[in-house]
Specification:
Length: about 140
């Protein structure tokens, strides 16, 4: 099973740009992070402490064929918001088994390692790990 189309598009977008343009693209994603629905309480969201900035996520897996993902990150944390937005764009609405099949090292494929600290990149991977953990739990 390959990557979901949304992540294929994200990877393609990052492959088409070099250097600082990759950072600009990440910031564009940060601006596109969907707002939380009004009925989702912050208390229902799980923190991702591996992220350098405060990030919270909620995985709604009641319908395993259409998993919904919600993220909350402050505007003053554009890198973290960008990572969350990439996951939202690439994974929201996908079946659980497709999300579980996403490689753990997908973040490395975006070519951001030379531009962003390893600690920040680990935050992006930690988001995926927590999403998968939630999908694996009963």
């Amino acid at each position: 099973m390959g990557l979901p189309e949304g992540l294929v598009q994200v990877a393609s977008d990052f492959a088409e740009v070099e250097g600082q343009d990759k950072l600009r693209l990440l910031l564009e994603f940060a601006d596109e992070l969907p707002d939380l629905p009004d009925d989702l309480a912050e208390s229902a969201m799980e923190p991702v402490p591996e992220c350098q900035s405060p990030l919270f996520l909620h995985v709604d897996a009641d319908d395993r064929q259409r998993v919904r993902l919600y993220f909350s990150a402050p505007p003053e944390a554009p890198t973290t918001r960008g990572f969350a937005s990439i996951w939202a764009a690439g994974l929201d609405g996908q079946p659980a088994d497709v999300i579980l099949g996403v490689p753990e090292d997908f973040a490395a494929s975006l070519g951001l390692a030379a531009l962003i600290s390893p600690l920040r990149l680990r935050g992006m991977s930690a988001m995926l790990t927590r999403i998968k953990r939630r999908l694996r739990s009963p």
